Amino acid sequence: MNPELLRLLVTREMPYGKYKGRLIADLPGHYLGWFARAGFPSGELGGLIALMYELDHNALRHLLDPLRKP
């Protein structure tokens, strides 16, 4: 796994939708699950949302804590 992708999860904001402006790492699990069922967007954003879904689904959100800015 590329550590830079994990860093992007705690710095990149959702660019549209109900959670526009929220960090991808802070998207709620039900929203990530919706993307998993409906389909992830194409490109980098979709890859980041899919990665966040996997972290959330496997109860690994805590791995992002050290990467967050204080």
From TrEMBL:
This is DUF3820 family protein. InterPro entries: QSregVF_b (IPR024530). It comes from the Bacteria.
